[in-house]
Amino acid sequence: MTEVREREGRRGEYSLEPKKNGGTEALEKKAPLDGDGVSVGDGKGVKLKRQVGLISGIALIVGTMIGSGIFVSPKGVLTQTDSVGMSLVVWLLCGILATMGALCYAELGTVVPKSGAEYAYLWTLGPVPAYLFAWTSTIVIKPSSLSIIALAFGAYVAEPFFSGECGPPQIAIKMFAALAILLIVFINCASVKWATSVQNFFTAAKILALIIIIVVGFVKLIQGEVRYLSPSVSFTGSSTNVFAYGIAFYQGLWAYDGWNQLNYITEELVKPYRNLPLAIIIGIPLVTILYLLVNIAYFTVMSPEELLQSGAVAVTFANRTLGVMSWLMPVAVACSTFGAANGTCFTAGRLTFVAAREGHMVEILSMVHVKRYTPFPALAFQSFIALLMLLPGDFETLVNYFSFAAWLFYGGTVAALLVLRYRHPEWHRPIKVPIVIPIIVLIASVYLVIAPIIDEPALEYLFAFLFILAGLIFYVPFVHYKYELPFMKHITVFFQLLLEVAPTSYFETEELQNA
Fold first, then answer.
1. Which of the 8 DSSP states describes residue 52?
2. Nearest-CA neighbor of 123 among 108, 101, 110?
3. Burial of 469 (0-12, 13-18, 19+ CB in 10 A)
4. What is the dihedral of CA 12, 14, 18, 19, to 10 degrees?
5. Phi, psi values for residue 25, rounded to 5°
6. Is 408 within 8 Å of 4 (Cβ atoms)?
7. Mean pLDDT, to the nearest integer, of 6-10?
């Protein structure tokens, strides 16, 4: 009979111990789950179900990565590299770095088979780094990403309804963005299968749009439009500022953002030991190839100067090549951004859910809908913050404040992999990457954190660092000392009844350990 180990409780302490069968009893908790009346022996309970297969996993990676980035980042990469050739090199290196980072995460995902990605893995370095990541991601990084992608969606959807040089007004863009967020959170709260089906559809739609750009680019190449791509010209004027390339990588890696998203839903993956690395190996190189081909296509139609002057690179490309069918490009970008927003919402909700389950957020966020088996409160919370972030209008500066923070945590996560390798070399690792890969990713993370600060020192980076540390104000009383406000239980019960949600029971089975 399949052995079942229930991971019970909130606000308990983690331990990392080797299992008797050679596997890893990773992050097992020691405290009981408040309010869970489900018997351990029957193996039943309200919990996340394994419904995400290989195809959906690939679609989630590809769909989340291909969003607004490929349509706006080429301009930023070219600005910092100063040449077509070096911009293409940066795009390639971004893909390689994303793939290596994801493979490191795949190893961690099998050693620590829990949803939450960085949050779960940073526990290796202690509860404080894990909490600070959850704090920063839940309150700012994830909601702001969702808001930015939704605003891009709103801008392209509103474009056909407003003619003139001024373009659509901000109020129209925000309305479409808000509608997109509300629709996406409804889909994700209603059903995991709905969410993954939407992801599959829009992933196919956006790849089709990129293929159109690539095919047009190949036609232009056959016609001899290669003057900006020849080796003798493409690297002319390349930037020699080593630290400026850090900002170029920021621009490129924004388009690759999502390479780690599958690790946020490890508990919902079917056969995670097989499907997690396969989805990474297939999904990220596919995106890298598409990005390189799309950038090449751009330069068959536009000169570097024209690309830098374009407010919307893909729209400029379409206007010059598709004629009366150029309207397809805003539609394609809208599909791309909607799919990316759906994937971002899907994974962001899981991060909040896991953080709350471990006592790092309020308890109601750790609950799952009793009928639909979705983390309804966590999804609603993330979307509410994203809607609030639409109000200020321009929050790109806010994202820039924390752009370096992401790689600070990525570097810390890879450091956790190295720590586990050193402390527990005897643990069973179904996926084990060569040691050189995490070392390269760690060095790259340090460079990406430091280089932009050296190139353009600004108070924004200091503010970002101080905001991260501000999470300790909540950590010390409410997490470390476990202080609970007297009225919180009543509020939790009220929302539990209102939303029809219940605490979860996390079961670790032998199927998970040997998948």
1. B
2. 108
3. exposed
4. 30
5. -85, 75
6. no
7. 41
Give phi and psi for 242, each to the nearest 5. -60, -40
Question: Structure tokens of 303?
Answer: 């000169």
- Reference 335, options 51, 55, 52, 70; nearest CA is 70
- Other C-beta atoms lying within 10 Å of the C-beta of residue 295: 26
If one counts the domains in the chain, the total is 1
Range of the domain at 245: 4-513
Q: For 33-63, b where at least 16 C-beta lie within 10 A, e where not — what string?
A: beebebeeeeeebbbbebbbebebbbbbbbb
Read off the CATH number of the domain in which 10 is found.
Answer: 1.20.1740.10
Query: Which 3 state secondary structure label does DSSP give 69?
Result: helix
Q: What digits encode the pLDDT tens for the residues 424-451?
A: 898 888 889 999 999 999 999 999 999 8
**Which helix (H) or strand (E) segment is 106 a member of?**
helix 84-111
Buried b (16+ CB within 10 A) or exposed e, 407-420: bbbbbbbbbbbeeb
Alpha-carbon distance of 89 to 139, in angstroms, equals 34
Residue 232: CB atoms within 10 Å: 7
pLDDT tens per residue, range 111-123: 887 766 787 788 8
342 to 97, 239, 355, 441: CA distances (angstroms): 24, 37, 20, 28
Cα dihedral 146, 392, 329, 158, rounded to 10, equals 120
Is-above-0.85 flag for pTM?
no
Q: Residue 512 has what pLDDT?
A: 41
